Amino acid sequence: MADVDHRPSNFIRQIIDKDLASGKHNSVHTRFPPEPNGFLHIGHAKSICLNFGIAEDYQGSCNLRFDDTNPEKENIDFVHSIQQDVKWLGFDWQEPLHYSSDYFDKLYGFAVELIQKGLAYVCFLNAEEMREYRGSLTKPGKHSPTRDTSPEENLALFEKMRAGGFKEGECSLRAKIDMSSPFICMRDPVIYRVKFAHHHQTGDTWCIYPMYDFTHCISDALEGITHSLCTLEFQDNRRLYDWILDNISIDCHPQQIEFSRLNLEYTVMSKRKLQTLVEKQVVQGWDDPRMPTIAGLRRRGYTPESIREFAKRIGVTKQDNIIEMSALESCIRDDLNVRAPRAMAVLDPLKVTITNYPDSELQWLDVSNHPNDDSLGQRQLPFGKVVYIDQADFREEANKKYKRLVTGGCVRLRNAYVIQADEVVKDTNGKVIELLCSYLPETLGENPADGRKVRGVIHWVEATQAKPAEFRVYDRLFSVPNPAAEEDFLQCVNPESLLIKQGLVEPSLQHAAAGHAYQFEREGYYCADSIDSSSERLVFNRTVGLRDSWSDAS
Ligand code: ATP
Ligand code: MG
After folding, report:
1. N vs C: which end of the chain shows fewer Cβ within 10 Å?
2. From its phi and psi, is residue 365 left (phi > 0), alpha (psi between -120 and 50) or beta?
3. What digits encode the pLDDT tens for the residues 450-468?
4. Superfamily for domain range 271-340+468-548
């Protein structure tokens, strides 16, 4: 899919245009700051496309920064997967890669500065007391007993915290702001806590770690970020972002701008919930093709272009909403319609013996890989005495609306001959197990000369050359549009989110490369599974159906 030159504007671009015009900034510097506590999901893709997209369009730069202040929940595998996913989406960051943990020394220094200015203090309230003292939206908070202790005393206590002199939860460092602020986040927020945790970047150097709100604004400022784009839930925290930068000795003061997060129907988007799905083995890992993770979408057969196009189509606003899954699906369908070669696969095989075809004769037909794009070339398709069609493409009887095969009727086998169903063979239960058909030899690329009516065109594979394949037919992971709103989201997992079928593919697919996409004629878009597929065992994942079956259903 070609990138369209015209990029839709949005309120963030308007702010940037204004800042450049007024001379507030000469260039634009954004960042994407994931916490390495899970795989990236499609919501992150929106943020990536926004931040890296703006940097690209304004010839600025965008940092990739790991927001790694929670060592217990983070690990190096997530650090690696995130880099891989950003690159796969087609973006690159300015070297070096950044980590908030690069700034632990500086952050400590800024905390000391706040203490020296009488703007931070060590507090000994436990978590429960802290909650109680904080008050509520209708009730102002109460001052901590140590709120007015001297800077000297606090410096010594903070140093002792750093040296491991206090247990986890025993004390914390808090910014001294306003216990009656209407913004709860301004009621003396904790900025450092004790955690005896090994860190994937800094090892055991630290036993105190800075909180997100303290770390984020300072990391932005240290990197010279001009516009710090984040999701709406940080709207209140903007006061804290600004307060911290206003009260420490730092020259740069980035502007925080909030936009609405992406929510998608029939899935969940919080890393904690995604983690639960993995841990409880509801799915087979972060990259399970049913997951809304970038790794899952990739394995499902989504292309980077389709995800970038999706981000473009949904745009950037301040309105919270839930996007329909069909919006994402139409992006990949549009992309694969153009680029995926066509092929034939039979998911529920029904044997068809062509009684008037010579016994062991194989005919190789030249067929094109794409109806509208010759550059995708041609392939050879064998035709022979026994073929398989899909069980759903035959009925003993049907009315005229049924455009497939019925007893006594004719259909065209795609790219090959017209056949007529003469007889059915049934097993002892009355199930049709084979069709005896005759073919019309003069119908290769021609209609039957005798005027026999052809009901439709169906797909098929030739029996001796076809390769067995597993088809993983994926559906939405949840059976309700907004599982996150349910009491227990695990209760509404769709029991039919994965249907596995054993069928056959045409021989040209024997060496289908991992991740390679095809349009299986009349079935949908599939790609060779990147993990389980090999030339001995073919596994295809359904990326998306040919049509929007969801709106059909509703
Ligand atoms: P989650 O709630 O899924 O755990 P998070 O916000 O904690 O997400 P981070 O790793 O902190 O995850 O996110 C990195 C960046 O991606 C942040 O700037 C965040 O605002 C953005 N982001 C996260 N989720 C979404 C989303 N659903 N839509 C848009 N941007 C998102
Ligand atoms: Mg976060």
Report:
1. C
2. beta
3. 999 999 999 999 999 999 9
4. Ribosomal Protein L25; Chain P (2.40.240.10)
